[in-house]
Structures are given as structure tokens and as C-alpha cells.
Write a structure and sequence with these properties.
The structure is a single chain. This protein is α+β, with helices and mostly antiparallel strands and 124 residues long. It has one domain. The chain has four helices and four strands. Strands 1-3 form a two-stranded antiparallel ribbon. Strands 2-4 form a two-stranded parallel ribbon. It starts with a strand and ends in a 15-residue tail after the last helix.
Amino acid sequence: MYALTRHETSENVRLCNAKDFCGPTAMYRGSHDAFLFRLLVPLPSQLLDSIDYRPNILGIEQVLIFNFKKYVQFNVKNPCKILRVVHHHCSKVRNETERRIQGRRVDRYLHVRKETGWAAFSGL
């Protein structure tokens, strides 16, 4: 499974004061904006039940990675330096209340540890 960190265009960096989380000098931050995987068998219902959250909730990518590792034993990599996903979002309009569960990021609410919910930069 690939969990890709986004790239920003140079225009977004300049106009929106955006940070490029996968650029040449980027430090890994645990941000994943796209997932790519091939299923050989249907996903178990336990997995589907454990990831039944909106995609815009803070920390959802860590919950997804943790549960894909737990229930389907996926090896999760982040080859964003090779496979590019470009992010365009200058509006800065976000409802922070709707992006949290009881005031917390979903990964922290569910006690997902960082090291189990990250896919650090890698090759293919």
C-alpha cells in the first residue's frame, strides 16, 4: 500500500504560504493525502468498521495506516518523492470543530501511536 504525502506547486507555496511536505528539503511530518493499493480479496468487515470516519478529520490517515497494517498486514510505504500528488487548497476555510472528535484528533482519540500510523518517505 502506498500512502503518499502531497506536493505543493511553487505557485501555492508563494501565493498561499503553503508548505511542501514532500519537497526536496521537506521533513517527514506524517501527512498522507492519497492512498493507492490493490485488493486481492475483499476487505474484512472489522477493518471497514474501524475506519468508518469522514476523510477530513484530523489524524484520519494515521488511523487508516494503522488499521490496514493491523487487519490486512499491508506493508505501507510513502514514495512521494517518486509518485507525485499535487495539493491545491488556498482557501484556508476549515471547520476545526467538525475535524475533531470530542476536541481531539481521531488518531489521539483512538490512541493510535505515531510509529504505528505513519508511512515514512521510501522508494517503491
